[in-house]
Write a structure and sequence with these properties.
Radius of gyration: 12 Å
Number of helices: 5
Number of strands: 5
Order of helices and strands: EHEHEHEHHE
Low-confidence stretches: none
Helix content: 25-40%
Structural class: alpha/beta
Amino acid sequence: MKLLFDHNLSPRLVRRLADLFPGSTHVYKVGLDSAEDLEVWDYARRNHLMVVTKDSDYNELLTLRGSPPKVVWIRRGNCSTNDIETILRVHAADIQTLTDNPDLGILALY
């Protein structure tokens, strides 16, 4: 279960969550920090990554294009990197369920 963190999330999450999500990366690390959402979407699909974002546009892309990739949509307003890390740790089992269930495409976390 590898994640691709969108530009609206800290690149530090890759290192901080490596114990749960090894092989994850950030758009910054793969040269997509200023890319359009569709480019990020296609990269995630080609590289078997799940997009983690706070951006509602990925929900729309999922509706239009279907999965893969799957999307973890963090729906909390302004919050710290520590808060995001905690949310993802608390919901690691839910993220695994999203990965394993072919009928699911998105997980909204609050």
